Amino acid sequence: MKVFTTPLIRDADAYTIRHLPISSTDLMEKAATACAHWICSRFPATVPVCVFCGTGNNGGDGLAVTRLLRARGYTAQAWLVTSADRLSPDCAINRERLEQAGEGPVMIRSATEFPLLPAGALVVDALLGTGLTRPLSGLMRDIVLRINDLHNPVISVDIPSGMYADQPPAKDGITVRATHTLSFMFYKLAFLLPASAPAAGKVTVLPIGLHPDYIAETPTPYQTIDARLIRRFYKKRAAFSHKGTYGHALLAAGSFGKMGAALLSARACLCSGAGLLSCRIPRCGYIPLQTALPEAMCLCDEEETHLVPGERDDTPYQSIGIGPGIGQHPDTVRALEQLLQGAGSPVVLDADALNILARHPELWKHVPAGSLLTPHPKEFERLFGPDADDFARLEKMRKACAEHSVYIILKGHHSCTCTPEGNFFFNTSGNAGMATAGSGDTLTGILTGLLAQRYTPLETALLGTYIHGRAGDHAAAALSPESMLASDIIDHLGAAFLEIAGTDMQH
Ligand SMILES: NC(=O)C1=CN([C@@H]2O[C@H](COP(=O)(O)OP(=O)(O)OC[C@H]3O[C@@H](n4cnc5c(N)ncnc54)[C@H](OP(=O)(O)O)[C@@H]3O)[C@@H](O)[C@H]2O)[C@@H](O)CC1
Ligand SMILES: [K+]
């Protein structure tokens, strides 16, 4: 799903009004109807609804939602927060409609007029939307602080009031902390970035009928990854195929005390469909790996505890994953260099392979074009330095991917893949239970397994992050986010693949 910046959302709105055609008031009615419908489907009419409105179109949405909920039998009350009486035209129309339907909004002109809410009320935040031009101050700030002091569920319309959609939060800036945000038509960038996303709570994208031609034809560097995108390139296994069809993967992983990382990535690689897997490991890992994963082949290094440069290996691997648990021994640095020099095609680099790269930037010249790097934020910082904010980090990712012709998957709640062309894909599957030891090793294995099956590096990044997240979601549903382990993510990869393949695959 495309993610547009606020100026483009405004363009989409204007294009829709012109070409559908539809009046701006009717478009607001559609947006408000979608919100009211969502509320009705989750909260019974016995729940009182308190709607806090501003004077722009976000406030207009709130006034319309109040009227629509009342028409469906809810006790809904609107408050209009303003120190002046200047309303946007559609906000004014909706104030009038609410008055005509019975009772208009109650004015709040000072923080002392903040009402005592009925017990168990649902709060709707329609103070400010994408028209935010400056950090909150004065009355608006006071009201938002009052809302944040409540213990009631808070639904933000379009975006939490005070949150910038396309720029970092202001220093000392405050926003409504929503339990749920109903975002019109698209995710906003802020919902996908760690500094702002938590305040949006759970985000639901509500279609409001913006013109499909505009959406299809307008380019944007930002997209979310969802099942529809994945199904465009997911390849079902052919009936007359053999293990060679699905590629031979090589994983260089593990060191004394960290053989678990090698084992997790190796199992994840095979469970993602690679035809054959060879594991390049230090000698100490031979028995555990062969015992726990008999399906994998082992290439043991001369050294007992860590990877060292070895004999030339001319096997034509379809993919090479390097990094989980390898440590940073000077011999291992040379082993990494040798592996990179010998790799004729894109590789997957993770964990200590990235840390070595950060300390030995001279190795960059050996990283094959199209390779996939999977840093978490700390590893990213070691590689490219610290950033002032999430947006500065996106820009740094864009530059690094272009300079080195690689794909970077920055791991996080919404793992973000950046391409050499400067496009960003945010993953939307997964959950907080995946913040657990070995989860990253699992992703490396999945990516190496997909690359072996001749998915392109971009397809590998998109399918890999998505399926990793979905497997994590299945694991969390079965075991709870607290109890699930990285090996449970691997155990649920099957359910995730079946989901993508669709029902006809399950027979
Ligand atoms: N996408 C779509 O297609 C659709 C979008 N719709 C809705 O429209 C919303 C965008 O509406 P909008 O442009 O009127 O902006 P909105 O945020 O309501 O208010 C702007 C007002 O706030 C003021 N203001 C700004 N900063 C401030 C501050 N810090 N503290 C105090 N005031 C501040 C600013 O005043 P000024 O800067 O001039 O002083 C201006 O008066 C969007 O989020 C969605 O809900 C739907 O209705 C239909 C379809
Ligand atoms: K809002």
TrEMBL record:
The keyword NADP applies. It catalyses: (6R)-NADPHX = (6S)-NADPHX; (6S)-NADHX + ADP = AMP + phosphate + NADH + H(+); (6S)-NADPHX + ADP = AMP + phosphate + NADPH + H(+); (6R)-NADHX = (6S)-NADHX. Residues 9-216 form the YjeF N-terminal domain. Residues 226-500 form the YjeF C-terminal domain. InterPro entries: Carbohydrate_kinase_pred_CS, CARKD, Nnr, Ribokinase-like, YjeF_N_dom, YjeF_N_dom_sf. It comes from the Bacteria. Its EC number is 4.2.1.136, 5.1.99.6. (6S)-NADPHX binds at residues 57-61, 129-135, 158, 261, 325, 376, 441. Its cofactor is K(+); Mg(2+). Binds 1 potassium ion per subunit. Belongs to the NnrE/AIBP family. This is Bifunctional NAD(P)H-hydrate repair enzyme. It comes from Compostibacter hankyongensis. The lineage of its organism: Bacteria, Pseudomonadati, Bacteroidota, Chitinophagia, Chitinophagales. The gene is nnrE.
